[in-house]
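Allow me, if you will, to draw on your knowledge of protein folds for a short while. I have a record of one protein: its chain in single-letter code and its fold written as C-alpha cells. I remain grateful for any guidance, and I place the record below:
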Amino acid sequence: MSQLDRAFIRAYNSEQIGSTADASVPSSESVMNASQSSQQKSSNSVRSMSRKPTLSELQHWKNQGIRIDMPGSPLVGSYDDSSSQQEATQDEFMLAAQNTAAVAEALDRLMLRAGRKHTPVNPVSAQAPKPVKAELPTPTIEIDTYEPPIEPVAEESEEAGFTFVAGIPTTEAPQKTEAAAPTAAAATSPAYRQRRLAHPKWEAETLTWPEETDMVLDLCHDQWVNLAATIAVSIKSLALVSLGEGTGCSTMTMCLAKLLAAVGRRVLIIDEGTGSESLTVRLGLNEAAASSQPVETLYEAMIQAADQPIAVLPAGYRNLADLSAHQLQQFTNDFDVVLWDGGDHAEVWKRLALVSGVLVVRDARGTHDHELSQILPKLQQRKINVIGIAENFWR
C-alpha cells in the first residue's frame, strides 16, 4: 500500500471536519478495507478526536492493536502487519520504476525534437585511474675520442756503413722568433753576425774538414738536412754523448756544425777531446790551441774561423767541472747553436741537464745495446730531452 492510498486521521475540530468527513471517510475506508481486509474485523468508521489523547489512552489503544495516526506522522500499517509493510515496499519500488521509465521516455522525445542523437552515458568507474608513469627519454652523451696523429717513421738508409735514427725534440721553442728554415740562398748572406760579448782572441784562416765528414754527409744527406733544420729552430744547445770510445761522436759534431754554418747559423763547438783524436786537432787548429798564454775569460780562449761562422772552445783552457749554467747561457746568447762534443766523459753525462737537447751516438757494431736500454729510462726520469740516437759505423 502506497502513501497516497493511506488514510490520515487528523485530530481537528469535528465541526470543521464534518463537511469533508462525509466525502473522504468512505473513500479512505474503502481503500483501507481493500488492503487490510484480513486484519480489519469490522467496518466501523474511523474515529476522530478533537483533543489530544493522553498517554494512558495511547497505551490502551496500542494494547488493543488499534492503529493510531498522529497529525504529521507517516502513515504506516498496524504494528503486527508485516505483510502490509512488504507490500508497501514493493509498491514503492514499482512506482519508482514507472517514474524512471516515464522520465526516460520524455527525455527521448525531447532529444528527437531537438534533432540530436541520444548517446548513452556510460557510468564512470568509482575506482581512481592509475597514474601512468611518463617514460622520459634516456639522455645520451657523445664523447669524441682523441686519436693522436700518426707520425711518419723516418726511413732508414739502405746504404752500407751508416744508419741514422732521430726523434722529434719535445722542448718548447725559444721565445725569440726565428725565421723560416734557411735555404741554400742564405749562403750568399754575410758569414756571421758580430756579437758584442763574443771576442775570441784567436783566429784561424780556415777549418780543415776531415775527409770522412763529407762521406758521412753524402750517405744520408736528407736526414742530416732535416736534423739541422730542427736544431736551428728549436735547439739552442745540444750535447753529443756516447757510451764508449771510438763511436764517432766528434765526427757527428763536425757534420752538424758544417751544415748549420752553411745555412748562416753561428756555431760554437765545445771540445772535450784530448790528444790527436780531439776535434780541435782534426780541424787543423792545433797550433793556435798550443799557445800557453793565459786568458781571463773563456771568450779569449775561443778560436774563430775567418771564412766560416764557427768558433771552437778547446778543452785545454778550462776544467770541465768549472763550466756553469750561467756560462752556457752566455754562449747561447752570443751564438745561434752551441754543440757540446761530450763523448763518453762522465762529467758530461752528469751535466746534461744544462743543455736543451741530447743526441746519443753509438756504434751499431759494438756491444752497447744493453747499456743503452738502461741509460735512456734514467735520462727520461731526469726530464732530459733526448732528441734521438745516431748509429755511426765511421770512426
Remarks:
- Residues 82-113 form the longest helix (32 residues).
- The longest strand covers residues 337-343.
